[in-house]
Design goal:
By secondary structure, the protein is of the alpha/beta class. It contains 10 helices and 15 strands. The longest helix is centred in the N-terminal third of the chain and has 15 residues.
């Protein structure tokens, strides 16, 4: 049963969907082609992000979903605290900022005591609550603006057309944005398309864009594209960039802080 390449790859994905795993030798026999041909098929499908090659064959990709806010808050907590300290060091008196949702970006709020006359826009309910607590206790000197929009009860944030429209009326010095993936090839990515559009809007309204991302996000690509790395001014992480990234980051005008 020898099939044309496109049809053969389609059948391989169908088999993968049923069995979860396929074997090179078995596929070679079933489709009456060489094992080298099957390996090329698997290479092409892996490049298209449709499967993952393993020794002797391939397995179905695991579908990743964004954890709920209370789960994200405790994942890589120590690394996120370190990132918060570094990121806050980029804030100056009189800045107008937008701090994105996310447990990493939220860590910045803990380090604003010595900053004065700030204006901070936020889209996360936990971040808003924390900021107001610090303001009430006299540990935050500035104005707070909550970005309106439809509330996501799982992630405790706002996004969507209303939020994007509101951001069109603001220009900020610096935006601190959260992402789910940072890679040289695919830039910044997120799990949720609507959320990705809103993060892109935050960047467009900002003079300086600062990405906060712990090491688990580096070299990773998720489903929704946000922007290219060349649209970023700083990446703040808890680890140095991967091997081979430094020169390419410089070419894109990105400063890496760790």
């Amino acid at each position: 049963m020898s099939l044309a390449g496109e049809e053969r790859r389609k059948r391989i994905l169908e088999m993968l969907g049923i069995k979860g795993k396929v074997n090179v030798n078995e596929l070679s026999q079933q489709f009456e082609v060489t094992t080298e041909t099957i390996r090329r098929d698997l290479d092409d499908l892996e490049k298209s992000n449709k499967l993952k090659k393993v020794y002797g064959g391939a397995v179905k990709l695991k579908t990743e979903i964004e954890p709920a806010y209370n789960e994200r808050e405790i994942i890589h907590a120590e690394e996120k605290r370190a990132i918060g300290v570094l990121a806050a060091g980029l804030i100056e008196d009189n800045d107008v900022l937008v701090i994105d949702e996310g447990s990493t970006a939220m860590q910045i709020i803990h380090h604003l005591k010595d900053k004065h006359n700030l204006t901070i826009l936020v889209c996360s309910i936990p971040t808003l609550t924390l900021l107001l607590d610090y303001q009430k206790n006299g540990e935050y000197d500035g104005r707070t603006i909550f970005i309106g929009g439809e509330v996501d009860p799982k992630h405790l944030r706002v996004s969507g057309p209303i939020s994007e429209k509101m951001m069109e009326d603001f220009y900020v010095n610096k935006s601190f944005v959260s992402v789910d993936g940072v890679s040289l090839e695919n830039g910044l990515t997120g799990y949720d398309y609507e959320r990705a559009l809103f993060t892109r809007k935050l960047m467009q309204c900002s003079q300086t864009t600062i990405v906060v991302a712990d090491s688990s996000k580096i070299g990773k690509r998720t489903v929704a594209r946000i922007a290219d790395l060349s649209d970023v001014d700083y990446v703040v992480s808890n680890s140095e960039p991967p091997s081979g990234w430094t020169e390419k980051l410089q070419d894109r005008g990105v400063t890496w802080l760790a």
